[in-house]
């Protein structure tokens, strides 16, 4: 409620400032009998910027430093034995806070607490008053400064546009900052992990058995990446075996054979698959697909585990079908019509045209799409967490439970705030591996797709 | 007139007649291949659509029954003998708030220590006289969370003590499972979840209409519960998800749109812009779990934000959604014909004015669609949330984004792992239906907006 009033007051003040700027520019123009450089809007906006930005900077600085300063002033009221003991200090401080806010405290209240609370109340009053006054003064000074510069020659529009442009650039920089943030955070934590475990043991180890962090640093486990990487690769291969033929054929039919009506209906239906959250696929794999395959396996006399690389791979393939089909669809429809016409002119059938002319022409783009799909499959998490069985062993049998890089990241890091043990830090080393793999796939794929687009433009 | 076949110029070539034979011989095979190819394509699409059907079908078949739940309506005696509590304390003038809170707390504790099982047993005995002698079996019939419902009724209105009220109480999960046939009734007794007596009671009460399958309001009005699975609900998860979606809307959409405006209209074409471009395309393809690692390292470990809080989840999802929003916004800016911009520039508008007064308003519908699709995507994302501790068991509704909270997809993940499998499989499916319903609504809204407001040029 209070915040709403404050926001309302600020908005009202700013709109008054805006009005003042706009009307000043009009009256200056009238009295001087000339045209202003910019429209009144910009003088108003300029005043608003000059009023708001310096005041906001002051307020941000205040809220960054004020609590520490007030705290240290209150601390001086505590007797030495309380202030020296961290536990007693924290509880005393919170009692003082409660006393000061009028909530009260239970039990006997020592004199120094009462004094401190009184001091805190008055200090807060002064501080609040001071910051309101300061913000107001800065705002008024900024506004007056901007007002004093208004004249027919003053380029208000350019200044305002410069400010807007700065804002736009900041926003685009955030995208870069995200990547930098990912790289720095994952890399630094991964490097900390490598102080515990030799990188060679990590990248080329064939045994994954991290043990628990509570067993202490003496009984350190084995952190071999290969079983996890192999699980990821196996599931990705199975997923691609499902997604690429189905997705590619669907794309070919949609772009070459389907009538407008069929396309209009079936394309969105197929793309529903892309919008379903992966946790739903995971659940579907766990309770429907897994038992189904396991039942078929039992009928054939095979030992098929319900949660296995096969189950996870098939369901992941289903998830990726629309991804492959819509990317390939885009790419196939970019092949120029003249190439088709030439092929038909020579008497080729449609399927011959597609196989001999269109697909070879579209191949680079399709390879790009394929790589993007692989990167998708490698980074997919929830399906494998639920359906792959989480058993980090090196096995060539797809019907057995496996584990993947992403599953292990989740297992090692969930619910664990302890960033000091190799058991949780390994998640960052795995994340780094995952990021590098997908980065390479993405960059190559994006490059290929881009080159391909340019080829036919 | 001599036909070309008889001219000597072609004497060296194979006779045209035989050439035509070859073509005719092959024609049937080629047409057969054509048909096969075509039907494979059609088949691929039908397979994809059939998979959508299977997925939705299996979730619906499992989940829809969970929206109704075995519920019994009982005449509950709020017997003052059992509910022996003093008057609810009121704030006296001489008390500080802290003292009043303490008195209230001890009153609440008295209330919580009332033997609610006895109250329930007495009311059950009204319809089932045998329940009076079998306290254990009687308590096991009603979801244990319903004791809290009775307690809350008394807390809200202490005057009901001494009266009799008709209250509808959710039956225990095992009763629900038994009546819905989700457990094999022929299993030997030691493998059954209900005692012999409880099985008979359940069937009898169901036949007499005391237990009926009522709409499970608990699913929407309660928070998660471990001790009382039958009353575990989604309220906390829904509120958490809504908070995160709002954060995504407030953070990712404005930043994304402004970045798109800069990159599309104002950025100079140089290597830095190229780098940003590649970077954004790559970010869109980075696995979501890597964003979770970023969140764990930066927001939780470095900035010290609380674990499991919607604010952290919302920020992580915002960073993840940002590339989607940027790409969609750029596409819709690009779809506005350049002539509009050129016309504005031609009558003397600055590039900034042309953008904000003319191009941007025309691009808004497309941007809105992209934003909604991005938010829907963020809503279903699970993996990054697991890494920032959102898989913690939280039995409260967050009132601010800084408090612990669950989220819809994470709740699904937690429920699918519950040991009470034959009850939670249905409840998880019901939660998935809720999630999918929200996502489908969002996507339908996006499609509606696109069809309603998008202009074709």
TrEMBL record, chain B:
GO biological process: phosphate ion transmembrane transport
Entry's localization field: Cell inner membrane; Cell membrane
Single GO MF descriptor: phosphate transmembrane transporter activity
CDD domains, A to Z: TM_PBP2 (cd06261)
Membrane topology: Multi-pass membrane protein
Superkingdom of source: Bacteria
Any one GO CC term of the record: plasma membrane
Pfam families noted in UniProt: BPD_transp_1, DUF3333
Limits of the ABC transmembrane type-1 domain: 238-446
Family: Belongs to the binding-protein-dependent transport system permease family. CysTW subfamily.
Official protein name in the record: Phosphate transport system permease protein PstA
Naturally occurring in which organism (per UniProt): Acuticoccus mangrovi
């Amino acid at each position: 409620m209070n915040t709403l009033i404050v926001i309302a007051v600020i908005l009202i003040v700013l709109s008054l400032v805006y009005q003042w700027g706009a009307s000043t520019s009009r009256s200056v123009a009238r009295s001087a009998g000339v045209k202003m450089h910019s429209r009144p809007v910009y003088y108003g906006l300029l005043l608003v910027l000059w009023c708001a930005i310096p005041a906001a900077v002051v307020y941000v600085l205040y809220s960054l430093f004020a609590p520490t300063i007030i705290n240290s002033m209150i601390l001086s009221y505590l007797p030495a034995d309380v202030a020296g003991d961290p536990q007693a200090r924290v509880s005393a401080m919170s009692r003082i806070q409660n006393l000061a806010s009028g909530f009260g405290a239970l039990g006997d209240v020592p004199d120094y607490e009462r004094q401190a609370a009184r001091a805190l109340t008055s200090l807060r009053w002064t501080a609040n008053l001071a910051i309101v006054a300061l913000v107001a003064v800065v705002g008024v000074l900024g506004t007056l400064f901007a007002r004093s510069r208004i004249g027919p020659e003053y380029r208000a529009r350019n200044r305002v546009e410069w400010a807007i442009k700065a804002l736009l650039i900041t926003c685009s920089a955030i995208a870069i900052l995200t990547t930098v943030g990912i790289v720095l955070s994952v890399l630094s934590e991964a490097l900390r992990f490598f102080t515990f475990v030799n990188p060679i043991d990590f990248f080329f180890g064939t045994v994954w058995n991290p043990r628990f962090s509570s067993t202490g640093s003496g009984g350190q486990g084995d952190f071999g990446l290969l079983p996890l990487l192999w699980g990821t690769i196996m599931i990705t291969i199975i997923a691609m075996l499902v997604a690429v033929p189905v997705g590619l054929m669907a794309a070919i039919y949609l772009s070459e054979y389907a009538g407008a009506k069929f396309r209009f209906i079936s394309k969105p239906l197929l793309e529903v698959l892309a919008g379903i959250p992966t946790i739903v696929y995971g659940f579907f794999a766990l309770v429907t697909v897994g038992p189904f395959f396991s039942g078929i396996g039992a009928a054939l006399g095979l030992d098929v585990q319900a949660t296995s690389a096969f189950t996870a791979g098939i369901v992941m393939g289903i998830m990726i079908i629309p991804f492959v089909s819509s990317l390939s669809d885009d790419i196939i429809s970019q092949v120029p019509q003249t190439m088709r016409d030439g092929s038909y002119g020579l008497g080729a059938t449609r399927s011959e045209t597609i196989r001999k002319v269109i697909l070879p022409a579209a191949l680079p783009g399709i390879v790009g799409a394929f790589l993007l799909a692989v990167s998708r499959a490698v980074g997919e998490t929830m399906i494998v967490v639920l359906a792959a069985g989480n058993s980090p062993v090196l096995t060539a049998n797809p019907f057995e439970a496996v584990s993947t890089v992403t599953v292990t990241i989740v297992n090692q890091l969930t619910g664990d705030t302890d960033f000091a043990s190799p058991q949780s830090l390994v998640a960052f080393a795995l994340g780094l591996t995952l990021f590098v793999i997908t980065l390479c796939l993405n960059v190559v794929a994006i490059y290929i797709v881009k080159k391909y687009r340019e080829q036919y433009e | 007139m001599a036909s070309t076949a008889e001219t000597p110029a072609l004497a060296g070539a194979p006779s045209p007649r035989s050439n035509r034979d070859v073509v005719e011989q092959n024609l049937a095979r080629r047409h057969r291949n054509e048909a096969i190819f075509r039907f494979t394509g059609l088949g691929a699409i039908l397979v994809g659509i059939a998979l959508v059907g299977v997925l939705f079908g299996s979730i619906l078949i499992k989940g829809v029954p969970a929206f109704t739940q075995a519920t019994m309506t009982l005449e509950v005696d709020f017997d003052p003998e059992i509910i022996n509590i003093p008057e609810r304390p009121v704030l006296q003038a001489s008390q500080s708030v802290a003292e009043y809170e303490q008195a209230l707390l001890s009153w609440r504790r008295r209330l919580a220590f009332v033997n609610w099982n006895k109250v329930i047993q007495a009311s059950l005995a009204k319809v089932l006289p045998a329940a009076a002698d079998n306290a254990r079996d009687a308590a096991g019939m009603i979801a244990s969370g319903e004791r809290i419902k009775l307690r809350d009724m008394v807390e809200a209105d202490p005057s009901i003590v001494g009266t009799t009220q008709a209250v509808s109480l959710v039956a225990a999960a095992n009763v629900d499972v038994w009546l819905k046939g989700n457990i094999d009734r022929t299993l030997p007794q030691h493998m059954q979840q209900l005692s012999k007596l409880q099985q008979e009671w359940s069937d009898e009460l169901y036949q007499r209409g005391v237990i009926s399958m009522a709409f499970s309001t608990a699913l929407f009005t309660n928070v998660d519960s471990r001790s009382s699975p039958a009353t575990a609900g989604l309220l906390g998860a829904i509120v958490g998800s809504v908070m995160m979606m709002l954060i995504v809307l407030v953070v990712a959409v404005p930043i994304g749109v402004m970045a798109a405006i800069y990159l599309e209209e104002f950025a100079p074409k140089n290597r830095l812009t190229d780098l940003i471009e590649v970077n954004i395309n790559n970010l869109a393809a980075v696995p979501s779990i890597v964003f979770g690692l970023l969140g764990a390292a930066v927001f939780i470990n470095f900035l010290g934000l609380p674990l499991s809080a919607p604010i952290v989840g919302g920020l992580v999802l915002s960073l993840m959604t940002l590339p989607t929003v940027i790409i969609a916004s750029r596409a819709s800016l690009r779809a506005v014909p350049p002539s509009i911009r050129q016309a504005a520039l031609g009558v003397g508008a600055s590039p900034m004015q042309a953008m904000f007064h003319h191009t941007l308003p025309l691009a808004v519908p497309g941007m809105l669609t992209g934003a909604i699709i991005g938010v829907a995507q963020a809503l279903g994302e699970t993996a990054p949330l697991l890494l920032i501790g959102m898989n913690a068991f939280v039995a409260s509704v967050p009132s601010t984004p800084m408090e612990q909270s669950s989220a819809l997809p994470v709740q699904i993940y937690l429920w699918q792992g519950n040991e009470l499998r034959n009850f939670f499989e249905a409840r998880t499916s019901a939660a998935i239906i809720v999630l999918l319903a929200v996502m489908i609504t969002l996507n339908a809204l996006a499609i509606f907006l696109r069809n309603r407001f998008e202009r074709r040029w």
